[in-house]
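Hi Prof. W.,

I finally got the Major facilitator superfamily (MFS) profile domain-containing protein prediction working! I wasn't sure whether to trim anything, so I left the full sequence exactly as given:
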Amino acid sequence: MAANTNSTEKGVDVVARHDEESADSEFPQEKPSSSQGSEVETVDHPRLKSIKRKVDLRICLVLGCLYTISLLDRVNLPNAVVAGMAKDLKLVGNQYSLLVLVFFPFYISFQPPMTVIAKKLGPRNFLTGIVVSWGLVMVGHGLVPNWKVMLALRCLLGLFEAGFFSTCVYLLSTWYVRREVAKRNAAFYLLGSFFAGFGGILAYGVSKMDGIAGREGWRWIFIIEGVLTVAMGLIAFFFLVDFPEKAMNSWRFLNEDDLKIIVDRVERDRSDVVAPPFKLGEYLKNGLDWKVYFFAANFGLSSVVTYAAAYFLPIVLRDGLHFSVAAAQCLSTPCYVFASILGYSQGYWSDKINMRTPFILFNCLLEIIGVAVLGFATQNPARYFGAFLIIGGANSNIALVLTYQANNIVGQWRRAFCSATIVGAGGMGGIIGSLTFRSQDAPDYRPGLYTCLVAAIMVALSVTTTTTHFYFKNKKQAQGLIVLEGLPGFRYTY
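And this is what came out:
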């Protein structure tokens, strides 16, 4: 754990150094406001760098650790199947797919109310509370007498995880100006993906506890990871911070002057630090904007691929590529390491040039090539390389499409609505992903691969559509013909 923390802190230093280097090109885009914020940004860069490092450590690092636990809890199901759960629980037909599927209706249905609750309670109370709750549910997964009880626990897991990811995305977007969001989204999301990629190795090691206390090895996978989740949730309570306007309540964080600098920067960037009172009608009116559904489609379709890979890659490696149980559990790890390196590199350069679309389209191309290689190559090493491209492209796109959405909306309740909508769409993507790789399609799993192919193509078409729209709207804004998003000086980012 210490090694992981050291490597993460180095990553935070890289983020901070890049922020300092790009400061001169970034600041002129923000509207001038208080003399204090302007002075710090143009003269006292070391102070700004120090402030942002503190924010990175208390938000990106903590959220990344919590997301790691979330992913481990979500992807341990296929590892448990490979370790013998299917045999012990006598899973037949599509019962495994049903265990995967039943999570998502609850995950989707509770997204909108959970986001509002998170805003009312504050991210620290809300996130740590639901993390501890689903950790206890995961422990229960290891104690079930039959698959029907596990089915009920999967429903509870969907309920408690609803609002987690959308609140994380929402919280991140409130602390940074738009040109800083891509690498933070990448750091938070891909940090989780990177360490969760070792879940297969962890599951394989824990499964060797088979017979201890009279329990099968697959049960210990759930029990150990559930206990880790509860512990992480309790620890996070003391380090996670709330939204900027409430951050003075966070223990030993920023002083009042530092917090004013952060608030001033965000206010000059998009004028939405303070949220107006919640009104249901105004909140739901955000659903009338067609762009919201394109943003949701980008995330949902990317999630089809990431969920399909998370839930079925170990099984495909075992049944389709005929690797051993140990190899099937461990060989997914290098794919996620590659995805983390690729995704963070793209986040860094995406912020540097302030563009998202070229990177998203490149990742879609990687997914398309990966599906073709995994599905139609004849040699196992080549097919395994296809898995690298699919997982690398899809996971890298998650952070980018989140940033693409966050950069092009204004207003806290609108931001909350969009976060809930896109994560709900991600849940729908999970439903599709959980149904595409069917046992009767082994060993080639062509329908699942074709679904991933179509999803990648549709993301490319969706982003191309909105980017074209943003391009022409920005031209009109530059000519002084229109005001975008009701905010003078605002321009879309593509």
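Residues 44-242+289-471 form a domain with the Growth Hormone; Chain: A; fold (CATH 1.20.1250.20). Does that look reasonable to you?

Thanks,
D.
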